[in-house]
Each structure stands twice: as C-alpha cells, then as structure tokens.
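User:
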Amino acid sequence: MTWESGLEDGAHTIGRWITDRAAHSPRRIAIDDRGVTTDYATLAVRATDLAEGLRQAGYGPGDRVATVSGNSTDHVVVFFACALAGVAMVPLSWRLTPRELVEVLDRADPVLVLVEDEHSSLADEALRRLVDARAGADARELPAVAALGTTGVEASVPPSRHPRPTRHVHDDDALLVVFTSGSEAAPKGVVLTHANCFWNNLALAQAMPLNADDVVLAMLPQFHVAAWNCQPLLAWWVGATVVLERSFQPARVLQLIAERRVTAMMGVPTQYAMLTSDREWQATDAGALRLALVGGATMPPWLQDEWTRRGIPLTQGYGLTEAAPNVLHLPAAEAARAPGAVGRPYPHVGVLVVDPETLLPLEGDATGELWVRGPSVFAGYLGDDGATARARSGEWLRTGDLVHRDADGVFRIVDRLKDIFISGGENVAPAEVELALSLHPLIEAAAVVGVPDAVWGERGVAFVVPVAGAVLSADEVRAHARRNLAVFKVPVHVEFVDALPRSTIEKLARSRLRDRARQLMEGVRR
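Assistant: Predicted structure:
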C-alpha cells in the first residue's frame, strides 16, 4: 500500500492536506519557526517519512502518541505524520507540574511519548512517576519514549509492543486528543476525529477565509485545540505561511507582526490587552494585519475600541474544545455595535438555547443553556463513557454555558453553569485546584472561585479551612499550590475560614463565596 492510495479512503482525512498542498505549491513557505523556514515540499517529505516509520514500527489507527513540546516545526511534522498514519496525537501541556502531567499521561495511556529537549526534565520526572504508579496493582505497560526531530524519532521510531495491522485512514479515526479542564477534578481527553477537524476548518474558511498570500501568527501553545483549528490548519490547507511563536512576549509579538507582515492571528483577550499596554504598541507597523480573532473569553469593550482605533477591529469568537472548537463568531464590523456579544453560529454548526430546568428549547429572545450539534462536535471523552453521556443529550452537546440570544440571533455569554473560570485564556477547574490544595496535611477543606481581573480576565480566590489547631499562612498555601499546579491555576488570594458555606448538606454555596471573593479583592485593590 502506498500512502497516496491510503489517503484516498477518507474524504476528510487531514494528512492529505499537506501532501496535496506540496504537490500544488511545493516551494511556498509553510512554516517560519524563529526565522528558520520550511517549504511545503520539505514538510510533506518529513511528515510522510515519519508516517511510514510509524507504520513500519507497528503503529496505526487506534494508537495514541503523546507529545510534550513547544510550538515548533518538529511538532507540526509529528502532527501530520500521525494524521497520515491514522494515529491520534495527544499534545500535553508543558505548563503542568510533574504531578499533573503524570495524571494526564496515565489517562491518555499513549503507546509512544515524544519529548522536545527543552521539556525533557519535566517529561522525565513525570515518566519516572508513571513507572512508580504502575509498579503495583496497575499492570498496564509503559509507553516507549523518543525525542522529537530529525535526530530523534524521525531517525528511528521505537517499535510498537503490539503492532497493528495496516489499513486505510478513515474519517472517523481519532486525529487529536486534547485534554481540557471540566467541572470535575481531573482533566478529560477530548477525542476529535479527522472529520471533526475537517468540518471545523471548512466552517472557518467560509466565515473568515484565508488565502495563499496570508501570513498567520500562531502564538497559542499547541496543546490547545485552537493552536491547530483556529487558523494554522486552515493556513496549511490553502498554502499560506504560519509563523510559529513559542511563548507570548508582547514586544516580540509586535516585532513579528511588523517584520513578518502578519495578516492574521488569534489570541485571548489577555494577550491583546498586553499588546496594547506595550510601549511599542503605537509605533508598531501593523498595516498588513487584516484578521485578528479573539477567543477564550469575551473581550471588554475598551479593548475592541483600542484596536479599532489602530484600524484593526477584533473579531470575537466563542468555542469549546468539545466542538473542535468553533461555535459562534461576530464579524469585527458588528462588534462595535454589539459590545459583549460573541456572535452567531458558524456554518455547519447548529445551536439551541435550552431552559436549564425543563430542558425545553427556547425560541426568539431568550436566556438559557447553549446546546451545539454538527459534524465538528467531538467523538467523546477518552475512556470516560459516563462523562460523555453527561455532556450529551441525544445528538446535542451541552456546553454548560448560560447565554442570551437577542431578537437578531446574536449571542452573549451570561455565565457558566459549570464552575470553570478562565484565567489568561486558560480554563481553570475549581475542583482540580481544590483537590491539589487538599493534599496539604494542614488543610481540612478548600473551595476556589474565580473573580474578575483587569489583566487576566479572572483569577482564583481560595477559601481554606485549616485542620483544627493548625498554624497555616497564606504564603504556605500558595507555595504548596505552586508545587502542585500550573502557575495560572494558583489562587491569587487565600482566605482562611472556619467552614465552607453550603446551600444544602452536599452542595457548596459557590455564589456566596464569589460575592465574598469579589469584596475581598476590591478591598485588596484599595
């Protein structure tokens, strides 16, 4: 079987995008990675060679390959190689602590882990802990491990312990497994198929098209679904250039916008706000930038005004990982007339506003839970049928977000029915933070809520009940949190209480804690 014949089996398989584009425009630049450029022909050859290496080593559809890597050409090669081989790529966050990373590794249960040199210490510690965790009753095999790049896995692929038979790649094969924080303590792996990602990008192409002359700045970390499905994959589909940036530094981003003549980009409100605060903001030549997409949270009106004054209105979007992620968008031309709105549905995306109590659809001008359906909605949570069932109602995905739809069909996000809050564009699940805090021997109970923050959108405030007679300081609690949680999850403030308020014996009264947290933070700001 040749890879060309293998690709014909699935009409919506993503691996063919890079081989088709290489055949059409081989010398166009696909990637600009810190000044090192890669054309489409080279990217396709590296990806197909690695895909063949994976297949020869026994990997195939049904397998998962995890990565711990920053944004890089090597990482993109792995993505397309996995797509060509029918293997699901599981990009894991390098922002996690070893304790957190070993938990998602255990849940993902990959057959192979690929590690970038920069993050080898983190990955090595997590893998060591995984060895310890599986030394007892858990008899599952450990994954093979290799380095990314031409001198790593591209030179030699570790053999599979359980080789898979060769077959074509199908539309419904898993392409990406992206871990996202839900309302539960542990992150869940969202399974996105080739078809999910195809339809997501087709919708994006119809709503906000790119062309071969575009230069897309990709500054979101590639363990987020948006780092693939909000512009970069579409750019590679049409033959545009993607400028990869590994970390967000406002001055550096502004420099890239000017020097690379960036035409399209996506970021979260925090990033756009930090760009406007940089001393080079007014002097930066951003004349080529025509499409600046906002996601992760609703942008404040002042931010839209600031960018509009520079002649670059921001395009607001709304989505969630389970929808691959695009659900709603608001063209920049409408944003100024509808502050706080997140727009209307993308093509091929169906939405309902549902009464949270009766679960009946609401028509016209209404407030209720947003439900979503369409070919881009995920295949389910990895290894968690119960969570998948809770997230669905028939063919509909229940987002857990309370929205208002006005008479013109424009949506606004009112609140989250779930308890997640968003800090700097990153989802933070209070239950996960609370579990980490409870690992401290002097903490009896803890509750975390999000409060508004001018820079980060929201930050966490922790209410902690110490063990009786314990002497515990806020600094000690935060230091403990930093050892066990990624930085963006660490509460900005700790308040000690005798007991946590409850609306019933079982249910925590988070609304009362949110009110108290807002009062506390207002006092701190004064």
